[in-house]
Design brief:
3-stranded antiparallel sheet; 4-stranded antiparallel sheet; alpha+beta; 13% helix; single chain
């Protein structure tokens, strides 16, 4: 964990006798590892569902479970992005493939995303998927985090 010394940053006037807060604030420069059964998924396995994307924080913690985390589920799902633009591919079918209830904070360090079955998922080329986690989902984080590695969903031939 690092710290930002706001006393070294010029304060700005925010209204009648009000100034921006100064002092030291904690921050975390997080990194995230992607694992799970999606790392080696075939198109047919995505169609049948049950594959997982596991996001493990190597530094930092997810925001607390409950209302705070629930408010970040959509942003986490939105951050899962295919490099391709298939008409029935991952990006087009994302809300069906990942219902919000399937984005689960398993522990302070792990979020597990389980893909739902989706007969409408269909690709003609391999899809390379990148996960970018919004900073608001991680305690004391100040920037979005690109999780590694990316993973490829292999098109059925």
């Amino acid at each position: 964990m690092g710290y930002v010394d706001k006393s070294m940053i010029a304060s700005r006037h925010t209204g009648a006798r009000r100034h921006a807060q100064i002092g030291i604030q904690a921050y975390v420069k997080s990194n995230i590892t992607v694992s799970g059964t999606c790392l080696t998924a075939l198109e047919s396995q995505i169609v049948t569902g049950g594959r997982t994307i596991i996001l493990t924080l190597n530094t930092g913690k997810w925001i607390p479970a409950g209302t705070l985390f629930d408010a970040q589920r959509t942003a986490i799902r939105t951050g899962i992005d295919s490099a391709q633009a298939e008409a029935a591919g991952f990006d087009a079918r994302k809300t069906t493939l990942i219902p919000l209830g399937n984005v689960v904070r398993t522990s302070a360090k792990v979020v597990t995303i389980t893909l739902a079955a989706d007969a409408g998922y269909s690709v003609t080329v391999n899809e390379i998927v990148t996960v970018t986690v919004p900073y608001a989902a991680i305690e004391f984080c100040k920037a979005n985090v690109i999780a590694l590695p990316t993973f490829t969903i292999t098109a059925n031939s």
